[in-house]
Design a protein that fits this description.
By secondary structure, this protein is α+β, with helices and mostly antiparallel strands. It folds into two domains: 61 residues, Roll (CBS-domain), CATH 3.10.580.10; 62 residues, CBS-domain (Roll), CATH 3.10.580. Helices cover 43% and strands 21% of the residues. It contains six helices and five strands. The strands form two sheets. A three-stranded mixed sheet has the order 3-4-5. Strands 1-2 form a two-stranded antiparallel sheet. α4 packs parallel to α6. The longest helix is centred in the N-terminal third of the chain and has 11 residues. It comes from Methyloceanibacter marginalis. Pfam families: CBS. InterPro entries: CBS_dom, CBS_dom_sf, Diverse_CBS-Domain.
Amino acid sequence: DTPISEIAKLMRGHDIGCIPVGDGDKLVGMVTDRDIVCNGLAKNGLDAASMTARDVMSSGIHCCREDDDLDKAVHHMEQLQIRRLPVIDKDKRMVGMLSLGDVGEAAPNALLSECVRHVSAHH
């Protein structure tokens, strides 16, 4: 039930573009900077000041496992055209976040180029 104004401040303060949404220890959604704008601020007739994470979050979480190959995770990001992918452990608890920046640091140039091309394609 976190207000989107607080989420936006957290994103700015930590220089990040998304925040996971949990219910207890279960990942139930993600709020991205784009979600705040498109599903919150830009929606006509909605009061952004009273909106919470659940009101704007992307549902239908996609993730990878901590022991997945990088190629598999990157392919998943390409197909979904997403820039960030939660990483879960064997108990389905979130243990990290894989971003395009992470891929850029670890992946071969060809894999990175292919991923960026697919993820950046117009939605």
